[in-house]
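Q: Is it fine to ask for two folds in a single conversation?
A: Yes, each is treated on its own. Send the first.
Q: Here.
A: Result:
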Amino acid sequence: MSSIEQLNEKIPDFAKDVRLNLTSLMADETLSPQRQYGLLLASAIATRNAALIAAMESAAAAVMTPVAISAAKSAASVMAMNNVYYRFVHLVSNPEYRTMPPRLRMNVIGYLGVDKSDFELWSLAVSAINGCGSCIDAHEKTLRAAGVSSEAIQTAVRFAAIMQSVAVAIEAAGPTPSQATG
């Protein structure tokens, strides 16, 4: 049984729609395998759900190179930083912060090891989970300028939404009996 099938079994009955969405997501052939599994992994990391992260990393390892897996992890980690900072700059009423240099290191962006549009798509998905409108807008514009279709962009955000719902459903179910006594 694959790690994703095992994960699907952890989704409780009250979240049947989440289970169905995960199943349909895995059958989606809109994106290349690297884009798809990079989205799944980066989005899982953004949810901070250990079971989801482990399942998606295991699944990604079957279709992605170690360099691509590292890039997906980098997208999640650098967006965690950027989403907090740029969400603050966007939401704070004092315009002075918009003129200040962020002084955040993002060297990984220069050494991706994957196609830049893959990294941008993964970054968009993480930004959607983290709710940073400024980052969402910037990544969407970059992707469109690179020729990525609206359908691919919408698919990436749908993947992120489903990953977030899987994490919430698993957490809402609470610990299994063996975890509770463990």
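Q: Second one now.
A: Result:
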Amino acid sequence: MTVIRLLLVDDDPLVRAGLSFMMGGADDIEIVGEAADGSEVAALVDRTRPDVVLMDIRMPNVDGLTATEQLRARKDAPQVVVLTTFHADDQVLRALRAGAAGFVLKDTPPAEILAAVRRVAAGDPVLSPTVTRQLMAHAAGSALDTRRSGARTRMATLNDREREVAVAVGQGRANAEIATQLFMSVATVKTHVSRILAKLDLNNRVQIALLTYDAGLLEEDGH
């Protein structure tokens, strides 16, 4: 069994205690450290080498957004799951654009938070198709036109097959679903996703989904 090294970041000591109690009881998760502010994260990551950081988005000095941007700019950065009280919030969108692998609400049932950490550690984003649509709808009102031309220019660097895979990722489909939809093997889908990430200089599938939306490709496909 592979043990997931987890770092908890939240300015509320009661929230941290609750998360530590809940997450620490799982056999496959080890709490390697706790931080009360984003300013403490970089040093803790250097010292503890977590696989996943569970990051509160609102903190008094350095917020979770800034800390996420700083972390994801590093080589061999840990995955970040944002903790928030809102599911369609500008700061959540900014954190996802910065490279967070997903988010969970603070009132999410414990089992779902555990599942989210495991999924992110395995390389899967924590965004259901329903939540993705909610976020995309929210993004529509936030200066989308200023991003569209740039997004389309970046998407134009993909070949036709990569573009099809990117759109399917933007629709919230898992690799197995994409393989069935596009008549290819799961391994081939994974290869295309890796190439898309490299070509577009993106961190994860969440950023692919956001870029396909910015480029208007999901609207073209009726989503």
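Q: Anything structural to flag on that second result?
A: Two points. The first helix runs from residue 13 to 24. Strands lie at 4-9, 29-35, 52-56, 79-84, 102-105.
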